[in-house]
Amino acid sequence: MSYDKYHVSYIDIFINLLKIKYHYFMPIKSYLAHPHDGKKEELIQALSNLNHCDVIPAENKDVLVLITETETKAEEDILKQKLETISSLKLLAMVSGFNTPKKN
Amino acid sequence: MYTSTTNRRSFIKKMAVLSAMTAAATMFPGIMFAGEQEKNLPKGGNLDWKKAPCRFCGVGCGVLVGIENGKAVAVKGDPKSPVNKGLCCVKGYHSVMAMYGKDRLTKPLVKKNGKYVETSMKEALDLIASKMKETIKDHGKDSVSIYGSGQWTIPDGYVASKLFKGCIGTNNVEANARLCMASAVTGFLTSFGIDEPMGCYEDIDHADVFVLWGNNMAEMHPVLFSRLLDQRLKRGVKIIDFATRTTRTSMAADKSILFLPQTDLAVANAICYEIIKNGWVNKSFVEKHCNFNKGLTNMGYGLEDKYKFKDKPEKISFQDYKKFLEDYTPEKVEKISGVSAKDIKYMAAYYGDPNKKVMSLWCMGPNQHSRGTWMNNLIYNIHLLTGKISTPGNSPFSLTGQPSACGTVREVGTLTHKLPHGVVMNKEHREFAAKIWDVPVENIDPKPTYHTVEMFRALDRGDIRFMWIQVTNPMVTMPKLKRYRDAAKKEGRFIVVSDVYPTPTTDIADVILPSAMWIEREGMYGNSERRTQYFEQMIQPPGEAMSDTWQLIEVAKRLGYEKQFYYNEDTHIEEIYTEYRKHHDNKKHNMAPLEVLKENPGMQWPYVEGKPTQWRFNSKYDPACSNGEDFHFYGKKDGKAIIWQRPYEPAAEEPDAEYPYWLNTGRVVEHWHTGSMTRRIPVLHKAMPHSYVELNPEDAKRMQIKNGDKVKLTTRRGEIILPASVNQRGVPAPMQVFVPFFDENMLINDITLDSFCPISKEPDYKKCAVKVEKA
């Protein structure tokens, strides 16, 4: 069974949010992070060690919610590169992206 | 909503979290982030957690609502609830936010010169009462009506029935459960003589195989579906999805079997054929506990006004039944249904295997069906032939869609023919009700009047002049909607609508009453497994909003029924429930006392000698069994259930050259029914902002339709344009399309057909013919 099509679906649903002026400040994004088999704890640890990341593991399923909150686009790109190197991460599917002003 | 005190950024971050959780929950039904739920709660507050049944679907999950400073700020699953064991779906987790939409109705509105004018509650109630008196005087008692719902609390429905049936003397009482559960009721009554499931959710923990009959549980009953998935992990149970469309349930099932619309009738008969042919009949069970009947066929579809049908049951022998089934060999049915003979035999083999416990689950698929009663009968036939019924894990289980479709509509009896105990046609039942209601028995009319579709037709014709609509949104949900919308706007009609938000139904109202919602008042719901759950008033309703129960009581008093509506404002819910329990004071249906409901996460009826009954009709568990046998189907006079001979017949309107596709309608996980509450919850609205039409990818490719393209759907009732959904959440079979009905801006029911099951009078929302074009 594959859930990939649903990830695509949710990205579609939130695509308008992603189209908000991308050069704006402080992007906040949420993802579903899927670990490799038996690597959930390792993935929680790896993500928790990164700056700008909040991790919310599901209690009863092998999936984590990852929230990233960065100051700038450059900072976000660096974070993305770090995420790509995590070996326990099987799939990272973006769910929503918000860009907000730095100050209210 | 409860983020109002936080800054914009933290709100947006919370939105991001909720978006991800919503996505996760729709992919993994029953997924828990309970720790996160608690972590996000307001810091330093004095949260007071109070238990309630969830506001939304018929599963009846127990939730704990966090109250802070008079506001409901959080929800979590109640770990003590045997229904959901601490789980919640996305709607449940966000349910309290539904009370805090910006456009909550807070003041009564009266239409004057085409405009709504704010007025006091007293003035509005006075107007309603005077209009009712005037209408009854001018047009007779059967010109006034009330239309409620399976979201009515038990006290709401009880006082509505007492006022209209007992005091005014009209049987013009209906509820939207007619649109979703009526076929389940008539299925139970014809097969067993008594309503509601014999089993319970605990069957899930015992069954080896689950057959889902046209039931997208992953989206519609996600918490229960997660219990199925959990059992698969623990015990390796099998889940078979038998449906007309590929859904998330199909994806998660062990086997997905697709059938052509309406042909589930033929497949169910073919399963029975296989059971008999292979010697899998539980002969001793059938001989002791079952009769065989046949009824009338070619009943029509109720398309014409004032359509009448009365079945004529006739006893037949097992041999007659066996001969009838010869038309339903798997090979013959394969040609009708598109289901391979191999797959039919595969399902039959599970039902027939004496070492496998089988649970059948269904909801709208077999119910919203032009032969809905028959479909319910046929599923029971399978379980009765094999004796797989009323024992843990062997369970034909009809699920409900609304939080109190069972508790209020079916048990209180808010349908035209029903009384809390029994039916209006029965003299003893009328006498019994009249005594409790303290009204002359002559007040209760022995003739049922209008079922829901006919009630709206009567409004169109002018036979009904006054209609009070509470907790439901028929101007989105009625099939062939345009006729009934136009009807409501006709001169000489007076419509009262009690609701919490503006809807297309409040648009047709002459008076709009703001209602107290869910935990803003006290009440009870009854769920699918005969569990009655109490909730206290936890917060104050906004403005002048008032519970539907008290609105009705106020009007009843104004109509002169002070004696019958003696209730005290502070204690009326307890008084009403205590009075209501008298109607069910017997071993077959006794309801638990209020103090028991208050102390427990609900209690199942029959509640006898301090104990709930989990499996009815089984003498090991059910104290109402009295025949000295293992099983006693006491709903029937001879104590035997009925195996019905019911044929396959086509739908009212099938695809043809002009309208070559099937149109199917239904729901999505994010939204509750017409979305009037859930579309005001930002995260749910953003996750599913508008309706769409699902197409089969091959059909879409042939018509050069891509995801998001505009598609025109045309039926004999009209046309609508919707964005295409191709290879997204659900995938219809070729030459079929699916449209959800939650979006009031894209009213799919403008083009559906108002055909219905002639026995249950429940409309078939799943089948009509449609033309599909790129717009």
Automatic annotation (TrEMBL), chain A:
This is Uncharacterized protein. It comes from Tenacibaculum caenipelagi.
From TrEMBL, chain B:
SUPFAM superfamilies: ADC-like (SSF50692), Formate dehydrogenase/DMSO reductase, domains 1-3 (SSF53706). Mo-bis(molybdopterin guanine dinucleotide) binds at residues 91, 151, 176, 180, 262-264, 364, 368, 473, 498-499, 548, 665-674, 749, 766. Substrate binds at residue 741. Keywords: 4Fe-4S, Electron transport, Iron, Iron-sulfur, Metal-binding, Molybdenum, Nitrate assimilation, Oxidoreductase, Periplasm, Signal, Transport. Residues 47-103 form the 4Fe-4S Mo/W bis-MGD-type domain. It catalyses: 2 Fe(II)-[cytochrome] + nitrate + 2 H(+) = 2 Fe(III)-[cytochrome] + nitrite + H2O. The keyword Electron transport applies. Predicted to be exported by the Tat system. The position of the signal peptide cleavage has not been experimentally proven. The keyword Repressor does not apply. Its cofactor is [4Fe-4S] cluster; Mo-bis(molybdopterin guanine dinucleotide). GO terms for molecular function: 4 iron, 4 sulfur cluster binding; electron transfer activity; iron ion binding; molybdenum ion binding; molybdopterin cofactor binding; nitrate reductase (cytochrome) activity. It is found in: Secreted. Residues 1-34 form the signal peptide. [4Fe-4S] cluster binds at residues 54, 57, 61, 89. Binds 1 [4Fe-4S] cluster. Binds 1 molybdenum-bis(molybdopterin guanine dinucleotide) (Mo-bis-MGD) cofactor per subunit. InterPro entries: Asp_de-COase-like_dom_sf, CT_Nitrate-R-NapA-like, MoPterin_dinucl-bd_dom, Mopterin_OxRdtase, Mopterin_OxRdtase_4Fe-4S_dom, MopterinOxRdtase_cofactor_BS, Periplasm_NO3_reductase_lsu, Prok_molybdopt-oxidoreductase. GO terms for cellular component: extracellular region; membrane; nitrate reductase complex. GO terms for biological process: cellular respiration; Mo-molybdopterin cofactor biosynthetic process; nitrate assimilation. Pfam families: Molybdop_Fe4S4, Molybdopterin, Molydop_binding. Its EC number is 1.9.6.1. It comes from the Bacteria. Component of the nitrate reductase NapAB complex composed of NapA and NapB. Belongs to the prokaryotic molybdopterin-containing oxidoreductase family. NasA/NapA/NarB subfamily. Catalytic subunit of the periplasmic nitrate reductase complex NapAB. Receives electrons from NapB and catalyzes the reduction of nitrate to nitrite. Catalytic subunit of the nitrate reductase complex NapAB. Receives electrons from NapB and catalyzes the reduction of nitrate to nitrite. This is Nitrate reductase. The gene is napA.
